[in-house]
């Protein structure tokens, strides 16, 4: 099977980094590596990460895309699997995502977030939104007369390494909000992007708590429709 490289950017994640690495190490996939990118942390993130059997590298330029690109350049897998430091993948996550690449036309696959630390209503609301809106939206955006990329969910995304190489990696000048939309637009000319409603990723809703539901939703909405190619 194709080797996968799990890339985990981390900035000041000492409270969460052990959990995401532990979950990543428990994957039932036969061939993978884990690369943690310490993104100029000022806490114990790196100190904790190096205690695990993973590769830990430093990226001094602070920013998600700087970290992802540093991890990509260090990777040796045929599939780049993106996790955020607050994600908790189930043990079959890697296997389920990588299975899509048996179709040579598929260049990327993504799936929904489950914000496990929000209230039950918010959890269900966002999960159903991802499953019943994001999936058809992904199909519509790739129609020949639209060609607007596809739907990628940042910390739950798999991309062929060869396609990222062809497109010169991640666009590091992108803002955090909308970076996945821009990545989808840049890679979409090279093949099909799948959205798997069953490829669910547990993650934290901490940004909704810190920035507010309406404010954060508005930022994501604007970024989704204005991200450049």
Which structural category fits the helices and strands? alpha/beta
Shape: globular
* CATH architecture descriptor: Alpha-Beta Complex
Q: How far is the first residue's CA from the last residue's CA?
A: 32 Å
Oligomeric organization of the protein chains: single chain
What's the structural domain tally?
1
Strand arrangement across the biggest beta sheet? 3-2-1-4-7-5-8
Q: Please work out how many helical segments DSSP would assign.
A: 9
Biggest pleated-sheet summary: 7 strands, mixed
The succession of helices and strands, N to C, reads EHEHEHEHEEHEHHEEHH
CATH topology: Spore Coat Polysaccharide Biosynthesis Protein SpsA, Chain A
Q: Report Rg.
A: 16 Å
| Mean of residue pLDDT values | 90
What is the helical fraction, as a range of percent? 25-40%
At the first level of CATH, the class is Alpha Beta
Q: Which homologous superfamily in CATH is the superfamily?
A: Spore Coat Polysaccharide Biosynthesis Protein SpsA, Chain A
| Total beta strand runs | 9
Give the strand content: 15-25%
Commentary on this structure:
It is built from nine helices and nine strands. It is α/β, with parallel strands linked by helices and 229 residues long. The protein has one domain (4-226): Alpha-Beta Complex (Spore Coat Polysaccharide Biosynthesis Protein SpsA, Chain A), CATH 3.90.550. The strands form two sheets. Strands 3-2-1-4-7-5-8 form a seven-stranded mixed sheet, with helices on both faces. Strands 6-9 form a two-stranded parallel sheet. The protein is globular, with a radius of gyration of 16 Å. The mean pLDDT is 90.
